[in-house]
Amino acid sequence: METTEYGVAQANSWFDGAFTATPVMAILRGFSPDRTVELARRGWDAGITCIEVPIQSAVALDALSAVADAARERGLVVGAGTVVSSEHVTRAHNCGASFTVAPGFDAAVAGASIAAGMPHLPGVATGTDVQHAAAFGLSWVKAFPASVLGPDWFTAMRGPFPQVKFVATGGMNARNAPAYLAAGASVIAVGSALEDEVQIDLLSNLLAVR
Questions:
Q1: Are 188 and 154 in contact (CB under 8 A)?
Q2: 169-190 pLDDT, tens per residue?
Q3: Most exposed among 77, 138, 152, 187, judged by the fewest C-beta atoms under 10 Å?
Q4: One of 142, 165, 195, 197 is an active-site residue; which one?
Q5: Is 165 one of the annotated active-site residues of the chain?
Q6: Domains of the chain
Q7: Complete DSSP assignment for 134-171
Q8: Is 0.85 topped by the overall pTM?
Q9: pLDDT (tens digit, 9 = 90+) per residue, 51-61?
Q10: In DSSP terms, which residues pair with 188 in a beta bridge?
Q11: Catalytic entry in 52, 73, 87, 197
């Protein structure tokens, strides 16, 4: 128990550090390894240092490994997304992931990831979800799908859970990001925005004013 509690605290501190200066995370889903690395570099160049690669196929695992290699060249790290089982945790670790992300909260998955030295960001969509994650000791969660939940959800959740920090994920882009940040989200996770030069410019402006 002592090791788990220390690990959870360490995981919370890791996310605190990762998101202090950059309230934007990029999710690169469904691309070839080469394209994933290309988009990751575009994000890094724009100042987005936190990149997630969901691992739902063999190609996605190859993409994660490729981005992990490219990240190390810059002294950066990459995370594995859609991690929903202990097997996924092992695959993510073997591919070089430094953190994991899930669409929901599963204590077994969170525990396995942290035990492997990878901070875990679970998905939440209800007060019950947030309460379970907080009871586990996690102070960072992924609100998903954020565009369906709406900005008011974040304002409402900040009341009963002031210690929890939310990463707004799902339907997020540079144009709606300010509304979610103002409502209480700490970080915005974007996906296809990295393929749009206009979005990249808007995200760079968002980073510049934070």
A1: no
A2: 999 998 899 999 999 999 999 9
A3: 152
A4: 142
A5: no
A6: 2-209 (3.20.20.70)
A7: HHHT--EEEETTHHHH-HHHHHHHHTT-TT-EEEEESS
A8: yes
A9: 999 999 999 99
A10: 24, 168
A11: 52
